[in-house]
Design goal:
Layout (H helix, E strand, L loop, with lengths): L17 E5 L9 E7 L13 E8 L1 E6 L2 E6 L3 E4 L6 E3 L6 E8 L1 H14 L1
Antiparallel strand pairs: 1-2, 2-8, 3-6, 3-8, 4-5, 4-7
Amino acid sequence: MELRSLDRSKLGPDNGFSQPLVPWPALNAPFKGAWCVVHPGGSSTKHAHHDYEIFIAVSGEAVLESNGERVAFRQGDIVHFPPHTEHQVFNHADEDFQMYTVWWDTDLAAAFAERHEASS
């Protein structure tokens, strides 16, 4: 077992209030992941990218905006964004909103398969 702990001191505005947690050298994963915190009154940057992505709401409540649609996003919810889908998270609540995000693409999947074959 190898445990990786969140270092909240690394959750600053210079990295979008997120900390990448996956992968690390001993973990062969076909995806990347990060812990994210959106402070009260804050928001993530509106963006789109070539990756597939999911958000898993861990604590608090936020509002997701994607392609002009806004929906509540609460603890226990999960959302999927296909590639090139614009998205943003807004926290209008009085407490931090925390979520975990996972993203992947064909290059990450291919690199995973190559590392897996090499280690077999």
